[in-house]
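R.M. (postdoc): so does anyone remember the format we settled on? I'll just put the structure tokens first.
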């Protein structure tokens, strides 16, 4: 059971940091294909940050619900 929990924690840690680094590396190529301005990266970064904050606030409720 301990190894499963450790794997979930590890994947969650990687999953939280992955979107930020991928956006910085991939956006210079992506924005041209989407036909949007370069400044839209800020909007996407804000959405990612808001999602991280919401998931942090909700983690306490999930922990209390599932133990």
């Amino acid at each position: 059971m301990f190894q499963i929990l450790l794997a979930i924690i590890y994947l969650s840690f990687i999953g939280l940091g992955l979107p930020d680094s991928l956006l910085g590396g991939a956006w210079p190529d992506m924005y041209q294909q989407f036909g949007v301005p370069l400044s839209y990266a800020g909007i996407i970064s804000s959405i990612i940050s808001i999602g991280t904050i919401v998931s942090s606030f909700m983690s306490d409720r999930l922990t209390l619900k599932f133990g």
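R.M.: ...and that's the designed sequence above, right after the tokens. Also worth knowing: Helices lie at 2-34, 40-66. The radius of gyration is 16 Å.
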